[in-house]
Design brief:
The complex is a heterodimer. Chain A is of the alpha+beta class. Helix content of chain A is 25%, strand content 14%. Chain A contains 15 helices and 17 strands. Chain B has a single domain (7-209, 216-220), classed as Up-down Bundle (Fumarate Reductase Cytochrome B subunit). The longest helix of chain B is centred in the first third of the chain and has 29 residues, at 47-75. Classes of the chains: A alpha+beta, B mainly alpha.
Chain lengths: 531, 223
């Protein structure tokens, strides 16, 4: 009896010991309690006021931030020399930022970028809270990246009000970045949860082991920055200059290296499969041709949030008999038509497409000529089949239909989101919206527009499934499998030499026929003898 | 096969030899079945299981061969595979004509010469031609992961190796078909199979005629 009591006590104490270990796990506890800082007592009437307080102690933070793409939205691709960055790039979803800044810049880590006159050298405009809040923070669309501190009607005259938030409370509870802080923008690219990436959506905030083994809330519970390690606020990892192949061992803690810490191999190494001796490293041999993601992410949009697979802007602008915009929803309540945006095709549990990829990406930019007779690639993933620097990657292939200049054959950016006379969402007039967009981008515009089919690719790299749910061998090693269209690699079960097969089966058939005839002849001659 | 000829039982296939033969037969058939599934000819076990079973069978057969090579040399049985032209044409003629008219088998099995000249030639071809193709390509295939560190990837690609392996598999398939059929050509349809199971074959009793030296069952069993 006493024995059992001791056992129970022991078990309970173990339980507490476990809990206390978890609470003080490295990286979760801070040496500073920001609620005790006088500087953060508040009240704050603007985001900039909070930043000024932050910078009193974190003296270098704004200078670090201002060097990063999170701030500049402006980027020279080191692989191609192409001038990129969200500021000027065109995509196949929400199309473009320029002329829509007050709306879109709610996802800029700064305060007040409402047009091209934003001062990128003013450190007080850096938004620390966007990434470091631990809840309660919001930058509603329409306020040029500013949080709302007084009750405001938006859009003006609409009778709809945005409630203010208490910046002091948020400033006092700052912490490390988390999945939900990064996700506030990175989940919602393209104007909604899961729209763009396919492998990033709010389901990851409460990820199960089945959804993502690393972000599993009851398991490893990784934050984004556990892989996307940052140094001086520069965050590792890029989908524009991708580390598509990383044929190296795992990094050691503290190792000085120029390698990207966000790859799978950075932790797992490039030969991660433990197999028995007889298998002769069969799975590890696959890492010379396949990205880890190709097998370990069997499908994307697996968390219940659908991702957009297609978006047809040409259907936007249909109105009800009363002249009102409307929405249509599918059986699950997801919007598939919106007068403001057009028609969508949604996808859940989507099997990726696969292609060779060496990490280099080129984009079709605002001033690039397009060929409207074929589907226009908004981006191209490069990589020679079978090349040593390329791997077969899973990708989301998205199809758009979006406005272009029919005389100049260039893509157009419409003004959509800012409540004014030219924005499409408020007047449903493409001519005005496209003229205003062109004016903001500074691109020449003939005034004649049409809609062109486009395509955009997204590398799939999150939502890593448990290993027993990895893509099975037979899904590629077969005719018409996942890798049906992939050149540059011989896949047993998919590939064969048709002449060798014909000859071989013919020989086997001839042998079978020969022995059958021989046997028949033996039987007949034997029967004759009996007679 | 004339019934007038006196017959006797002789011990032809020793215990290890029979074990080797039948386990090899099973392994070869398993490897043919799984191999052609891996090749994509059909879908029965599933690719992954087929690969696992194929590789396991290959390792098992390698181990079996290690013992068998040892056995062949310690017993001197390897001499059974030395080719001979003696009665080769007679054997071919027998299978093409004689067998239909009940002509006597031109070759008399003894424990020291258990394979007829056609068999010797076929087994030698299997050993010297088909086996190197299958094992050479098969081991390269199996150890594909090590090509880079061995520098082999500069000379070889998987497609060539797979083609050689498939070609070898077809040769083996043709052999199996012919081999299984030829087991029925003994003095009864199942005589040869029975001999390979029990070790004892019934052959024409050359001792009944005054001929060359005797090879009794006891002699061969003790050797």
């Amino acid at each position: 009896m006493r024995n059992r009591a001791i056992h129970v006590l022991f078990a309970v104490s173990l339980l507490f010991a476990g809990a206390s270990v978890a609470a003080s796990a490295p990286g979760t506890a801070s040496t500073a309690d920001h609620s005790k800082f006088e500087e953060l007592a508040g009240p704050f009437d603007s985001g900039e006021a909070v930043t000024r307080a932050c910078l009193k102690c974190h003296t270098e933070a704004s200078h670090q931030i201002m060097k990063t793409r999170h701030w500049t939205w402006d980027y020279i691709n080191p692989d191609t020399g192409q001038h990129l960055g969200k500021k000027t790039m065109v995509n196949a979803f929400c199309i473009g930022d320029q002329s829509n800044e007050p709306f879109c810049q709610s996802c800029h880590i700064g305060y007040g970028w409402k047009d091209q006159h934003f001062d990128f050298s003013d450190g007080n405009k850096v938004d620390c809270l966007a990434c470091h809040n631990t809840g309660g923070y919001a930058k509603p669309s329409g306020f040029a990246g500013n949080p709302v501190t007084v009750r405001s009607e938006y859009p003006p005259g609409s009778g709809k009000f945005v409630e203010p938030i208490d910046l002091a409370k948020i400033a006092q509870t700052v912490g490390r970045t988390r999945r939900d802080t990064c996700g506030a923008c990175h989940y919602n690219g393209g104007g909604g949860d899961g729209v763009k990436h396919g492998d990033l959506d709010s389901s990851l905030n409460t990820a199960t082991h089945a959804l993502d083994v690393h972000m599993d809330k009851d398991g490893l519970n990784f934050s984004c920055s556990d892989c996307h390690v940052s140094d001086q606020h520069a965050v590792a990892g890029s989908r524009i200059s991708v580390t598509a192949a990383d044929p190296h061992r795992a990094l050691l803690r503290g190792e000085k290296t120029a390698r990207n810490p966000a790859t799978c191999q950075a932790c797992h190494g490039d030969k991660p499969h433990k197999e028995n001796l007889l298998a002769a490293e069969r799975l590890n041999a696959h890492t010379d041709t396949l990205a880890c993601q190709s097998c370990h992410i069997p499908a994307f949009a697996r968390g219940g949030v659908p991702t957009k697979m297609a978006w047809d802007w040409s259907q936007a602008g249909q109105l009800t008999a009363e002249g009102k915009p409307f929405q249509k929803k599918d059986d699950h309540g997801h919007v598939i038509y919106d007068s403001k945006k057009g028609a969508f095709v949604l996808g859940k549990d989507v099997t990726p497409a696969y292609q060779w990829f060496n990490g280099k990406v080129t984009y079709t930019l605002q001033d690039d000529k397009i060929d409207p007779s074929t589907r226009v690639p908004i981006n191209v993933f490069h990589g020679e089949p079978g090349a040593a620097d390329a791997r077969i990657w899973p990708v989301k292939v998205f199809h758009g239909r979006q406005p272009y200049d029919t005389e100049r054959n260039t893509l157009l950016v419409p003004s959509v989101g800012v409540p004014n006379d030219s924005a499409f969402w408020y007047n449903f007039d493409w001519a005005k919206a496209l003229a205003a967009g062109a004016e903001a981008t500074g691109a020449p515009y003939s005034g004649k527009y049409g809609f062109v089919d486009t395509q955009m690719l997204w590398p799939i790299t999150h939502m890593v499934a448990p290993k027993d749910k990895a893509v099975g061998c037979h899904e590629c090693h077969t005719n018409g499998g996942r890798l049906a269209g992939i050149d540059g690699v011989y896949i047993p079960g998919r590939d064969h030499n048709p002449w060798l097969d014909r000859l071989g089966w013919l020989a086997a058939l001839a042998a079978l026929l020969g022995v059958t005839l021989h046997a028949i002849a033996r039987v007949i001659t034997h029967l004759r003898k009996e007679d | 096969m004339s019934h007038a000829t006196p017959m006797k039982r002789i011990y032809v296939f020793k215990r290890y030899e029979r074990f080797w033969h039948w386990s090899q037969a099973v392994l070869v058939i398993v490897m043919l079945v799984t191999g052609f599934e891996i090749h994509g000819s059909y879908d029965k076990l599933g690719f992954e299981r087929a690969v696992r079973l194929h590789a396991l069978s290959a390792w098992t057969l390698l181990a079996l061969w290690a013992f068998t090579i040892f056995w062949q040399f310690t017993t001197g049985e390897w001499r059974q595979y030395i080719p001979t032209a003696n009665k080769l044409v007679a054997m071919a003629r027998y299978y093409m004509f004689g067998i239909f008219v009940g002509a006597p088998h031109p070759y008399h099995v003894t424990a020291r010469k258990k394979h007829n000249p056609l068999q010797r030639l076929a087994y030698l071809a299997l050993l010297a031609l088909v086996s190197p193709i299958i094992w050479g390509s098969g081991l390269l295939y199996l150890f594909y992961a090590y090509w880079g560190s061995l520098g082999l990837d500069r000379w070889l690609n998987l497609e060539q190796v797979a083609m050689a392996h498939t070609a070898g598999a077809f040769m083996m398939l043709v052999f199996v078909i012919a081999h299984v059929y030829l087991t029925t050509t003994g003095h009864t349809v199942f005589a040869h199979i029975k001999a390979m199971i029990t070790g004892w074959d019934i052959v024409e009793d050359d001792d009944a005629r005054p001929t060359d030296a005797d090879q009794g069952p006891g002699a061969s069993a003790q050797r």
